[in-house]
Amino acid sequence: MIYTKELNELDSSESYFKIILCNKNVVVIAFVNLGISNHELNKESRLKHIDRSYIICYSVDFLKINNKILFDSGINSESYYFGGYNIDNNNDVQDIEIKTSHLILKLCDDSKIEASYFIPIDTPNIKANMSLLDLNNFWNNG
Q1: CA-based, 20 to 30 A from 112: which of 34, 39, 49, 90?
Q2: What does the domain layout of the chain look like in residue ranges?
């Protein structure tokens, strides 16, 4: 399932992510526990979470991760802000700013949306509640 509207209603602050592909033409970020509200997937204002999804940006005009600018075409298109815990970087919290006019949200065929959190790895306070095999397939087959 692919969505192109109301994407500013996504909340990645409690998400886990992995950058699958990153160049000027396309950026693909795999997210676990991406929050959503006030959207056709969750019409309520109370946040729900998507277990597995991808953010895909085509024709990237600007990309900044934390304070490092990776691309800047000088074109001022719409800004989107993401972040969360980077699976590839020791779960460090990172902030991502992307400017693009072509952003989509893609869910897996069997993605779940629930009020509870999806936790892909053990944390000091919470144990993982997702299958490692399913997660490895998700991270590696984006």
Answers
A1: 90
A2: 2-137
